[in-house]
Design a protein that fits this description.
By secondary structure, the chain is mainly α. Helix content is about 60%, strand content about 10%.
Length: about 80
């Protein structure tokens, strides 16, 4: 099990996520982001807008995910 924060995953806070895979981390981050969006949290809304912008640039999106994957891979198991 590895631990990353929302900020590590291009989010807006220090909420921690625990998962076995980077895909698991992404799912937890997405769920958290949607919860914060429903609550109207402005910092999370801004982070989601930035991510939407990346989605319009496939190379930038790939680079972002590659960076997150490398960070995940470098983490120790907890």
């Amino acid at each position: 099990m590895k631990t990353m924060t929302s900020k590590d995953l291009a989010g807006a806070c220090d909420a921690e996520f625990h998962a076995e895979t980077i895909d698991g981390m992404a799912e937890l981050s997405k769920k958290h982001g949607m919860e914060m969006l429903e609550q109207g949290d402005q910092s999370h809304i801004e982070a989601m807008e930035k991510m939407k912008g990346l989605m319009n640039d496939p190379e930038a999106m790939k680079a972002c995910f590659d960076t997150m994957r490398k960070m995940f891979d470098s983490l120790s198991e907890s």
